[in-house]
Amino acid sequence: MNKQKISRYFYFLFLFALSFSAHAHSGAGSMHGFADGFIHPWLGIDHLLAMSAVGLWAALMGGRSLWQLPVAFLTAMAAGVGLSFAGIEHQGAEAWVAFSLLALGLILFINRRLSTPFASALVGLFALGHGYLHAAEIGVESNAFSYALGFLLATALLHGVGIAAGLSGPAVRRVARAGFALSCTLTGAMLLAGI
């Protein structure tokens, strides 16, 4: 696959993601079970980009980071769900998620290797906000456990998308890193600015 085809693929993926709600946390409607939980991360560009970017970053770092970053994200995301289920209010969660996108974009852009424990802690902090907001979308009549399982599985799959891009050949890796760096940075900045 040449660079032009790879670029078109990521451009199409980005446009496809933008065709959905630019922000998955409208508060409209309610989520009910596994299927709703599974689809939620795919419909919000903030989650789609962040979760794929974590997988890409893990692959670019390599070694233990390949599995530790996704595990840290999933674990902290589950903790964020717990905070939301416990009724703990967090008015800044939307900004937290937007900041996580901006930070991930800049990390991918700079492409500097961080220690695995530090990178794991960082993605864990980002994941708390994502988990909190996912849980906040659950309706009163929902099966919260099934919903949470659905979005945790989708998150793991999105990490896999990023990992696959990062483990591909050098051309794919370069295009993926540049595309996710730009997409995450711009989307995070726009969400923080309220655009």
From TrEMBL:
TM region positions: 40-60, 67-87, 93-111, 118-135, 147-168
InterPro entries: HupE_UreJ (IPR007038)
Record keyword rRNA processing present: no
Record key words, sorted: Membrane, Signal, Transmembrane, Transmembrane helix
Signal peptide start-end: 1-24
Record's protein name: HupE/UreJ family protein
Source species of the chain: Methylomarinum roseum
